[in-house]
C-alpha cells in the first residue's frame, strides 16, 4: 500500500510517466486532463500574450503558404508549430498525435508493435538506450549504446526521434535494415523483421540454492504486482527463506511512477521512497513505504548501469538512501523528471514535463544519475578448463575421512550453465551476497 498524505484526488488521476528519452515510453492507463480551475489559476499569473510575436507567427504562416515550393495547409502548419513548441522545451515533452498517443497507451500494457528497441538522441543520431529482452532487436545482437545512423539506407541525422521511430515501426513481419555504429567503429547493417513486442517486465529464478534473481526490464502498470509474485515464487522454489537476492535494473529505461514506488515498497518497511517537486501544487507528491515486507529483509544487491533510467533510478535511489541494499555496477542514466500525459481533443495528447523527482535524502538524479556503492564494469568471462586430474580420494587405497565423512573424488560431470557464468556483474553480485551471508550468519 502507498502512503501519500499530500496526494489529492486530482493528483491521483494525473498520468505520471517516467522513462529515458524513449520512442516507446511507459504511461498510466487512465490519463486525464488538468481541470479548468487549475489551468485558469496558472494562466492568471502569466503576462498577457505577446502581440508582436503573434503577429510575426501569423505573418510567417502567410509567407509559407504563399511562397513555399509546395502547397501547405493550415492544419499541417499548426501541428508542426505545436510539435516545435513542445520539442524545444526539453527532450521529453512532446505533442502526441493519435497514433503516438495510442502507442503510448499500448506500451504500458506490455504489448506493442516494433523492433524492441528503446532509443534516445545523441549528437543528432538515434542512439539505442537498450534492446528489450526476447525481441527481434535483442536476438539480432543490437546493444545499448549503438548508434542508428541509417534506416533502410536513409540517414537518421537531421531527423527527429519521432520521425526515426515512425520509420522503424510498420507492418508486422516486414523486414527493415538498420545501419549501426558501435563504439566508433565501422558501420554495419542488421536486418530484422518487425514483430508484436510482448514485454515481460519481470523475470525471476534461483541462481543457486538460497540465492534468488529478479530482473525488471521496464516498469509497467502491473510490475509491482509481478515483483510480489516473483518474491513469493522464489521463496517457494527455495523451500525456505532466501539467503540473498539480486535485483537487476540494468538497461531498464523506466516506466510508470506508481509501479516504481510499489517495487521499492516490497523491500522497505518505513520511510520515504520518492517525492516530486514542480511549479504547480498538484505536481508535488510524496510516497512512503508500507510496514509490510514482502522481501523478508533478505540481503539485497541491486545492479544498475548506464541504461538504468528514471523509474529504475527511483528504486535504486530509495534502496540506497534507506541503506536497504548494496548498489553495484556503473553510473545510471540520469533522468530525474516526471512527465504528465494530458489528453486533448481528437485522440491527441501532450506529454509535458511537470516535475522533478528526488530520492529520500533529497538528491535530484537529473543529469547526474545514481552512483553505485561498488563500481563493477561489465567484462567478458572466459571459463578455463579444470586442470585437476586427481584428488586424494581418487588414489587407490587412500585412507578414509577421520570423522567418517564421505569421499569427494574428482567429478567429471558437466555443470549446467547458469546466468552468472557469463555475466561478470551478476557473478560479482552473487559473490558479495555469499560473503554477506557468511559474515552475518549466526
Automatic annotation (TrEMBL):
GO CC, alphabetical: outer membrane-bounded periplasmic space
InterPro entries per the UniProt record, alphabetical: ClpP/crotonase-like_dom_sf, CtpA/B_N, PDZ, PDZ_6, PDZ_sf, Peptidase_S41A, Tail-specific_protease
Entry superkingdom: Bacteria
The protein's name in its UniProt record: S41 family peptidase
PDZ domain ranges (all copies): 101-169
Signal peptide: 1-25
Protein family (similarity comment): Belongs to the peptidase S41A family.
Gene Ontology BP terms: proteolysis; signal transduction
PANTHER family: CARBOXY-TERMINAL PROCESSING PROTEASE CTPA, TAIL-SPECIFIC PROTEASE
NCBIfam families xrefs: prc
Amino acid at each position: 500500500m502507498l502512503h501519500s498524505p499530500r496526494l489529492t484526488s486530482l493528483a491521483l488521476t494525473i498520468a505520471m510517466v517516467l522513462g529515458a528519452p524513449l520512442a516507446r515510453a511507459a504511461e498510466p492507463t487512465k490519463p486525464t486532463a488538468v481541470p479548468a480551475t487549475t489551468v485558469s489559476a496558472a494562466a492568471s499569473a502569466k503576462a498577457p500574450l505577446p502581440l508582436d510575436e503573434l503577429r510575426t507567427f501569423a505573418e510567417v504562416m502567410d509567407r509559407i503558404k504563399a511562397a513555399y515550393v509546395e502547397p501547405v495547409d493550415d492544419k499541417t502548419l499548426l501541428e508542426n508549430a505545436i510539435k516545435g513548441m513542445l520539442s524545444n522545451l526539453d527532450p521529453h515533452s512532446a505533442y502526441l498525435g493519435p497514433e503516438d498517443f495510442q502507442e503510448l497507451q499500448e506500451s504500458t500494457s506490455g504489448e506493442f508493435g516494433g523492433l524492441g528497441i528503446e532509443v534516445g538522441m545523441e549528437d543528432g543520431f538515434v542512439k539505442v538506450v537498450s534492446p528489450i529482452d526476447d525481441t527481434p532487436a535483442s536476438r539480432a545482437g543490437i546493444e545499448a549504446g549503438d548508434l542508428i545512423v541509417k534506416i533502410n539506407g536513409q540517414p537518421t541525422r537531421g531527423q527527429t526521434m519521432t520521425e526515426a521511430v515512425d520509420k522503424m515501426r510498420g507492418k508486422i513481419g516486414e523486414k527493415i535494415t538498420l545501419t549501426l555504429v558501435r563504439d566508433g567503429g565501422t558501420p554495419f547493417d542488421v536486418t530484422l523483421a518487425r514483430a508484436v513486442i510482448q514485454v515481460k517486465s519481470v523475470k525471476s529464478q534461483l541462481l543457486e540454492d538460497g540465492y534468488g534473481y529478479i530482473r525488471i526490464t521496464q516498469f509497467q502498470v502491473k510490475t509491482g504486482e509481478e515483483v510480489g509474485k516473483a518474491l513469493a515464487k522464489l521463496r517457494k522454489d527455495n523451500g525456505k527463506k532466501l539467503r540473498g537476492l539480486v535485483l537487476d535494473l540494468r538497461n531498464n529505461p523506466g516506466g510508470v511512477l506508481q509501479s516504481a514506488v510499489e517495487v521499492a515498497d516490497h523491500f522497505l518497511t518505513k520511510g520515504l521512497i520518492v517525492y516530486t517537486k514542480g511549479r504547480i501544487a498538484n505536481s508535488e507528491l510524496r510516497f512512503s513505504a508500507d510496514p509490510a515486507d514482502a522481501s523478508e529483509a533478505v540481503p539485497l544487491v541491486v545492479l544498475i548501469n548506464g541504461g538504468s533510467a528514471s523509474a529504475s533510478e527511483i528504486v535504486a535511489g530509495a534502496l540506497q538512501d534507506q541503506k536497504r541494499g548494496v548498489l553495484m555496477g556503473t553510473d545510471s542514466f540520469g533522468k530525474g523528471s516526471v512527465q504528465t500525459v494530458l489528453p486533448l481533443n481528437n485522440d491527441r495528447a501532450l506529454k509535458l514535463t511537470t516535475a522533478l523527482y528526488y530520492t529520500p535524502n533529497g538528491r535530484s538524479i537529473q543529469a547526474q544519475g545514481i552512483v553505485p556503492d561498488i563500481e563493477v564494469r561489465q567484462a567478458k568471462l572466459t571459463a578455463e578448463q579444470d586442470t585437476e586430474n586427481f584428488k586424494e580420494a581418487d588414489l587407490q587405497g587412500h585412507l578414509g575421512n577421520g570423522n567418517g565423512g564421505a569421499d569427494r573424488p574428482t567429478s567429471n560431470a558437466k555443470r549446467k550453465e547458469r546466468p552468472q557464468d557469463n555475466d561478470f556483474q551478476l557473478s560479482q553480485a552473487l559473490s558479495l551476497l555469499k560473503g554477506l551471508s557468511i559474515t552475518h550468519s549466526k
